[in-house]
Amino acid sequence: MAEYPWQQALWQQFAGRAQHAHAxxxxxxxxIGKRALAERLMALLxxxxxxxxxxxxxxxxxxxLAAGTHPDNYVLEPEEADxxxxxxxxxxxxxxxxxxxxxxxxxxVLIEPVESMNINAANAxxxxxxxxxxNTVLLLVSHQPxxxxxxxxSRCVQQACPLPGREQSLAWLGxxxxxxxxxxxxELLTLAAGLxxxxxxxxAQGVREQRALVVEGVKKLLKQQASxxxxxxxxxxxxxxxxxxWFCDWSxxxxxxxxxxxxxxxGLADMRKVVQYLAQKTxxxxxxxxxxxxxxxxxxxxxxxxxxxVLLLESLLVSWSALPGNG
Length: 327
Ligand SMILES: [Zn+2]
Description:
By secondary structure, this protein is of the alpha/beta class. It has helices spanning about 10-15, 35-45, 60-65, 85-100, 120-130, 150-155, 165-175, 180-190, 195-205, 205-220, 230-235, 240-260, 270-280, 285-300, 310-320; strands at about 25, 75, 105-110, 135-140, 155-160.
């Protein structure tokens, strides 16, 4: 079971509790190990002969849990990634909660992410939160607690999960991704907004390679060695949201440099020279108007609007290539 050093203090608090709440809400940004913490707590709560600080790993309950056949644990998550948890799924959970524990101990429910429940599903869950059933503990995991109904939050013990510091993240990444160089891990962590588990996901998705492809393309675009259409087609494997995040980030860096002239604030090394060049060559109002457009399109991408990907990228690249100069 995964354990993260930055969770150690919080874990000791959980493990040291003589009594447990009926429901916990574990929240914090995606990519810091909340799910692993919830699973570790689930195992501890179900274990028949727990060690001072952890599940034993060898009792009947631990064996059944490891085999995925424990009768008294229930994991509720979207049937497909990024989709909603359906109200029918919550109804099944509710009937599990009212049953008696088959092994005679606790029952533990893990729900992740809680915000993927629509209002009907959330209301169906409320019943289980309002009427605690015997020895059941609910572990709710949320990346965006602000999206939850207040009635859900108020019925849980809310626990913010700690974020690792940069040094701690890099040390952990050193073990998780030993094949990368220190600089590569540092770059990856920046691309993942400082979230170490997200960095591992990005590496698995080939994001560093995609970034190299995009950066090379942007440089060619500005030298007029590649057309917007060629690039838009060549980037077909790069997630649209990631592209908009990067361009948004670069426009921010350009504006920041125009305001501060601070060479330490130019972002990742791969685009520093380009950012500096564009900041020197582009009127500020032009950067601002391109950035407005990028932010607007990014919202549509987030909302999963039906977009023509190639056309959208072409528009982005046409306005980006027109940045330098007064035209
Ligand atoms: Zn055990």
